[in-house]
Amino acid sequence: MLAYLNGQFLPRSAATISVEDRGFIFGDGVYEVWRVVNGQLFETERHLDRLKFGLAELRITAPDITRTDFLRQIAERLLTESDLLEGEATLYVEVTRGGAPRTHNFPPPGTPPTVYVTVNRFKPPEELRARGAAAITIPDIRWLRCDIKTLQLLPNVLAKQAAMEVGATEAWMIRDGVVTEGSHASVIGVIDGVIRTHPTNNLILPGITRSVVLDIARRAGIPVREDAFTEQDIPRLEEAFLAGTTTDVMPIVRVNEQVIGNGTPGPITTRLHTAFRAHLDASCAAGHAQPTTA
């Protein structure tokens, strides 16, 4: 598989960074993941806007990869030479503050950021989606800037591992009794026929798929409240699902020992996934008509 690192294309196995890179030492950087269908990036601009927001909040100079034309040029070569122009894939972009002697304060002005881009083949988890997934709840011990998609993912890693160890797919984070989000996806519930999810603020990542799905729901006339539900509300959930780049719309049919609804993917969840998948395919198909700018 081919990778891009600081202006060079090379085999991923040959890509190396300095041991003093601040991403390695401090987790000082941000990342972004795109869904790719038949060589076309999904929601290119929304992902780029979130990447640029994170860089600005961390005061990292935005590199060329944040330009739409440059990103598409890099993506096209990686996908082409990795034989990923057909079917599904993901594109991963990571930007750190760069390499410099280890000090907690920022390195000297002019230190170039490290930019790493790679691609992977992707297979949607359709068998799991058909039967529905399980989740657990876990305390949300993360920092208070979860709206920045940083490399600092240790709490998410521990949460995901805790879920996997009991045969669940995801861990729902609980802060002050409120469900915030999952370890790697947005959490959305249905109570009294109304979609409920945490509002976008500093306590959650503004999910791209979350935003698209909520837009689809509104257009379909499904009531939406960006108002968090609580841990105590979980027994009241008629349906629940995850929304994320690699989860699409994933039904949750059990949380801890609580069965959600009748224990199968619910009608609203199923309807939203069907509509989201159609939107994903149509958006990427339309992208074929847009030439890549070198």
Plain-language structure description:
It is a single chain. The chain is an alpha+beta fold. It has two domains: 2-121, Aminotransferase class 4, branched-chain amino acid transferase, N-terminal domain (D-amino Acid Aminotransferase, Chain A, domain 1); 126-281, Alpha-Beta Barrel (D-amino Acid Aminotransferase, Chain A, domain 2). 29% of the residues lie in helices and 28% in strands. The chain contains seven helices and 15 strands. The protein has helices at residues 22-26, 44-58, 68-81, 126-131, 154-165, 208-219, 267-287, and strands at residues 2-5, 8-11, 29-37, 40-41, 88-96, 114-121, 133-139, 170-175, 178-182, 186-191, 194-197, 224-225, 239-244, 248-255, 258-259. The strands form two sheets. Strands 7, 8, 9, 10, 11, 12, 13, 14 and 15 form a nine-stranded mixed β-sheet that branches. Strands 2-1-6-5-3-4 form a six-stranded antiparallel β-sheet. The longest helix is centred in the C-terminal third of the chain and has 21 residues, at 267-287. It is globular.
